[in-house]
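pipeline stage [seq->struct] | target=VOC family protein | organism=Taklimakanibacter albus | residues=103
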Amino acid sequence: MPPSPQTPPGRADKVLHAQLTFTNGDVLMASDWAGGGAYEGMKGFSVTLDYESEQEAERIFAGLADGGHVLVPLQPSFFAKAFGMVIDRFGTPWMVSGGAITA
């Protein structure tokens, strides 16, 4: 955050706005916790990533799982050739799928 009289004490090193633009044009935006109390962690949501191929889903899932915690191993499901759930090393919950199954 830029120095400012409105910046709460202890927050000067936090990220106000961040943007990650993927090669396909998709955008993911984020910021650090700015609440007044203790941060309780991320809960009640997942970030979902869906890929055309099972192989790309496997590659991304492996990267997110590195240092993280796998909730549901990447495996076939009724809607995709690969689906899994993982919490990355930063505590972000993810659902990853690839190779959609169409009727």
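stage status: PASS
auto-comment: The first strand starts at residue 18 and ends at 21. The chain has two domains: 1-34, 41-103.
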